[in-house]
Amino acid sequence: MQRAERLLDMIQSLRRRRRPVTAETLASELDVSVRTVYRDIGALVRQGVPVRGEAGIGYVLDAGFDLPPLMLSPDEIEAVLVGMRWLSERADPVLARAAEDVVSKVAAVLPPHLRPILLDGALFAASYPGDVPADQGDVAAVRAAIRNGRKLSIEYSDESGHATQRMIWPIGMTFYERVRIVIAWCELRQAFRHFRTDRMTGLVALEERYPARRADLFRRWQKEEERAKEEWERCKREGGQMQPCGERGSAQPRMTAPASSLARPEATSASAAG
Q1: In this structure, are residues 112 and 171 in contact, taking their beta carbons and an 8 Å threshold?
Q2: What are the angstrom distances between the C-alpha of 125 and each of 87, 108, 121, 122, 206?
Q3: Most buried among 116, 129, 131, 173, using CB within 10 Å?
């Protein structure tokens, strides 16, 4: 590997991470010695690349640093192609159109000899015509609420068709093969819940921000999911009875927590920007 190529790969490796990465990790990824990593880091700093850190702790690339457009490798082009084709089959119409636009924009900047990999690529995402439940609301508005940290007012129907009015704080969305799940704090249940987009009606996107940072809420949700998974595994080992878990839509042990742990999440900021 040429040194210039290695320096670009090192920048890309740093860009992928939010936390400091050690020289040993970089050396393993780039197949060079730790001493070479130290020399390359020094070279990047001298060239004005904002790398911070020190030996033994790790290195991080300051936010906001960008590179001129880079040439994509055939593998990277195919990654874009498969990802965009997958989205075009499973996303809401607005996001599906955006995926098609991404392919067009990438194709426009690719050199002629690489363009066929994207435009005539033979890698596909399976489609399920007629087998995907139709969304009842504007999923693009849900995604916008997630980005902007806004509350949503919805009417949600469970598996039996029983509907309840909810005020939720959406913090994420998971794309499954046939359905999309919104991860949110539910003011009615005073807990995190999962909502299928095809069961959400009467959706109203509010201007009101929820009083917590989305990143903080997401970390709390992840911890609760990890605890629930551990409890589920323990229950299975002990032969416990599985019960449906509310809006989660999956069979997991029903968790009973002290009232204090189900209180409203701590408001760490007036802004919910993640």
Answers
A1: no
A2: 9, 23, 12, 10, 35
A3: 173
Q: What distance, in Å, lies between the first and last C-alpha atoms of the chain?
A: 37
The answer to whether the beta carbons of residues 231 and 109 sit under 8 Å apart is no
Q: What is the pLDDT of residues 220-229, one digit of tens each?
A: 999 999 998 9
- Check: CB of residue 121 under 8 Å from CB of residue 113: no
CA distances from 175 to 34, 154, 182, 195 (A): 40, 20, 9, 12
Q: What is the pLDDT of residues 62-121, one digit of tens each?
A: 877 766 555 688 898 999 999 999 998 888 999 999 999 998 888 888 888 888 999 898
- How far, in Å, CA of 174 to CA of 172, rounded? 7
Calculate the CA 26 to chain-centre distance.
24
Q: Tokens in use for 122?
A: 């033979």
| SS3 label, residue 202 | strand
Contact 179, 163 (CB under 8 A): no
